[in-house]
UniProtKB/TrEMBL annotation:
Its cofactor is Mg(2+). This is Adenosine kinase. Its EC number is 2.7.1.20. It catalyses: adenosine + ATP = AMP + ADP + H(+). GO terms for cellular component: cytosol; nucleus. One of its GO terms (molecular function) is adenosine kinase activity. SUPFAM superfamilies: Ribokinase-like. PROSITE patterns: PFKB_KINASES_2. Coiled coil: none annotated. Binds 3 Mg(2+) ions per subunit. The keyword Nucleus applies. ATP dependent phosphorylation of adenosine and other related nucleoside analogs to monophosphate derivatives.
């Protein structure tokens, strides 16, 4: 890798920093909390005892989490040079925040947290059942992020310094004005603005801020269930993922200098790339069942590998192949974790 092409702060991400509380459970625990495998929800009153139960009864692990922060950690693994990425999000003034910052910085991410002393750091209960995962996020302090944080001169300089910007659909539940302000800045400088659909409920229940932001989005990522929900809410009239990806690319766009790219992952099935009216598919090499530990970090890892290569200026096919590689590596470990050097080769 040519490190000379890299510099600090090239990739800026904004999202919800959460401490994952991860445990292997039986299906009856999912039923108890009205949860289903391979889904993500926001915590309601019924879920308040969940993290405590995972810690007390199931020997839960603490893992640094939050979708965007995870992806930046993986991107740093690929980039192999510290502080190429910067992360904004809000945490509490507590021990969980210290754990999060320690993990993120140890992986090379320059975290610039906003701190809310009145709210606890957010958590995400990760219930692993037969190698599938179900997520329940209690955003806590993450839910209180304010636009003032990015307007702080020191933080705004990070936005000015970045070459590209990545935001999660999850963040639209927190501060759509922040997302729009960064998107407008990216547009004014002709820099890529990238977003992930994150979960089906974003398209279903936060369609208004999503569609307000969509014209700014240069690259939209999502998995098959997220893409199908988006298509349903937007009345595309099809469940064909290739047609959905093409239709996403045709939606209104503000920057005529960049044609929109849509990427849809399908777990072990081929990744779909739509660009300029054309579909390209990228096969996913099979991971033997006995090697799969859990699928919790697969989506975040795919994005991390993709963004790592994109930051280095690599073409989209290389970015996607790296995303597939990182996802395959990380489903063989617990949570979004990795070790050693990333030895991805095209």
């Amino acid at each position: 890798m040519e490190h000379s092409t890299l510099r600090k702060g090239m990739l800026l991400g904004i999202g919800n920093p959460l401490l994952d509380v991860s445990a292997n459970v039986e299906k009856d625990v999912l039923d108890k909390y009205d949860m289903i495998p391979n889904n993500a929800i926001l915590a309601a009153d019924i879920h308040k005892p969940l993290c405590g139960e995972l810690i007390q009864k199931y020997s839960a692990q603490f893992i640094a989490g939050g979708s965007v922060q995870n992806s930046l950690r993986v991107a740093q693994w690929i980039l192999d040079e510290p502080n190429v990425t910067t992360f904004f999000g809000c945490v509490g003034d507590d021990e969980y925040a210290k754990i999060l910052e320690k993990y993120a910085r140890s992986n090379g991410v320059n975290v610039k947290y906003q701190c809310n002393k009145n709210e606890p750091t957010g958590t995400c209960a990760v219930l692993i059942t037969d190698k599938h995962r179900s997520l329940c996020a209690d955003l806590g302090a993450a839910n209180t992020f304010t636009i003032d944080h990015i307007r702080n001169p020191e933080n705004w300089s990070c936005i000015e310094n970045a070459n590209m910007y990545y935001i999660s659909g999850f963040f639209l539940t927190v501060s759509p004005p922040t997302a729009l302000e960064v998107a407008n800045y990216a547009l004014s400088k002709n820099r890529p603005f990238i977003m992930n659909l994150s979960a089906p409920f974003i398209s279903e229940f936060f369609a208004e801020p999503l569609m307000e932001l969509l014209p700014f989005i240069d690259i939209l990522l999502g998995n098959e269930s997220e893409a199908e929900m988006f298509a349903s809410v937007q009345n595309f009239g099809t469940k064909d993922l290739k047609k959905i990806a093409l239709k996403v690319c045709e939606l209104p766009k503000k920057n005529p200098n960049r044609s929109r790219v849509c990427i849809i992952t399908q777990g072990p099935d081929a990744v779909i790339l739509a660009q300029n009216g054309t579909i390209t598919e990228f096969p996913v090499e099979h991971v033997p069942e006995d090697k799969v530990v859990d699928t919790n970090g697969a989506g975040d890892a795919f994005v991390g590998g993709f963004l790592g290569q994109l930051t280095m200026g690599k073409p989209l096919d290389v970015c996607i192949k790296c995303g597939i590689w990182t996802a395959r590596e990380i489903i063989q470990k617990s949570g979004c974790t990795f070790e050693g050097k990333a030895n991805f080769n095209v």
